[in-house]
Structure formats: C-alpha cells, structure tokens
Amino acid sequence: MLLFYTTAPPQTGHVFNPTPTPPLPHHRSLGYWVLSYPLDIIKSAIQTDSIYPEHRKYKGVLSTAAKLWAEGGIARYTAGLAPCLLRSFPANAAGFAAYESVKNLMEPPAPALV
What we know:
Elements: E1 4-6, E2 17-21, H1 25-47, H2 61-72, H3 74-78, H4 81-106
Antiparallel strand pairs: 1-2
Helix pairs in contact: 1-2, 1-4
C-alpha cells in the first residue's frame, strides 16, 4: 500500500508528523460501496418484507439473494449504485475534513523549534 508522510511548514511551530496518510481516501470508499452494495440490497429487501411470517416473501439471506437474482439478475443488485458512488466523494471528503479539523483542535501545539 502506498503511504506518504506529511509535514507542516517550519514557521507554524509544528514538528514532523509521522502519521501515514493514504493518498486518495475516496478510492477506498468506492471499493467499499462496490463490494457492499449487493449486500445492502439483500438487507433492504429483508427489512421491507412483511412483519408477519406467513406473508413473508423472503425466508433468509440465501433465499433472498436467489430470489433477487431471479427477479433481475445483476441489474437488480446494482440499481442505484451510480448515485451512491457519486454521493460518496463529497460525503467522505466532508467527513474527512471534519475529522482532521477536530483532531487539529484537540492536539496540543508542539514545542517550537529554536
């Protein structure tokens, strides 16, 4: 995995920060959604099924997966994936920016180099 290290400019009084930073964190989120989206489709189908056992369309995870595949094949599992991927870039960027901002507020300032 490719990692690089960040440093702050010397005039800020911060010293070398050895925290590894992934080069493009949004690519990880894309991989996450591509791999987990079909499971999310199965989960949503089970959640929206009837509350009464005698009226349920799906009996378990594997039967749900098989019935969804019979309904529409791969298209049934990828419907809505494109908007989800487009949303992941700004949502993850905002979350990452908020995390970094709070982390910087909570860190004590490093002693100045003389």
